[in-house]
Amino acid sequence: MDLRVEKTYISLWEAFCGLMREKPFDKIAVKELCAKARIRTATFYNHFSDKYDFFGSMMHFESVRYVRGIRSDDEKDIISYFTYYIRNALDFLEKNADFLMTLVNDNALQPILGLAGKRLKKDIASRLRRGNGLRVSVAAEPELIAAFCAGALEESFSWWFDRRRTVSKEDMIEKLIAILSSVISPSAETRVE
User: What pLDDT score does 185 carry?
Assistant: First the structure.
């Protein structure tokens, strides 16, 4: 990603978080967000269709920043990728719980998780297609497996967020990896084409 674009995203995200502390999600206007971030509204619309798309993109942007930390040899192992992604998604939810609760109260969290899920689905499908011998335990198209995994993770993250005080992050990671490993396994018999 171009450094200028990354700086714009960071500026928008910081402005957005500041505005969310002041008012509900549905009361934040794109024009107001842009003014606080000190960017032009046209620049915002060059990258995002609306504030929901913006927030979903920002969640994905944050996850990509985390995923950059995965070593290139780890990327060949889809389970390592999922473990890393899940851990960082739960870290994000935990770190931003107060902010995200304002979205829950505004009924805005689910649509935003849905946008992030769509981006995750594309990333998983891409990784499965270029798997270099990656094997999965079901005979299905990479897009179907990706849709299944992304949807399951989206709902699971929401489930954990509601129960984060009673279900530890480590326990949740362990359970999700066990579930995903039963679907996607580097040692199973069916090759992804």
Answer: 60
**Alpha-carbon distance 136 to 185, whole Å?**
5
pLDDT per residue as tens digits for the range 153-167? 888 988 999 899 999
Q: Which residues pair with 184 in a beta bridge?
A: 136
Whole-angstrom Cα distance, residue 5 to residue 1? 7
Query: Whole-model pTM?
Result: 0.66
The label of the residue with tokens 């290139």 reads 72
Measured distance CA(47)–CA(11) in Å, rounded: 14
Domains and CATH numbers, the chain: 73-191 (1.10.357)
Q: Is 136 helix (H, G, I), strand (E, B) or coil?
A: strand
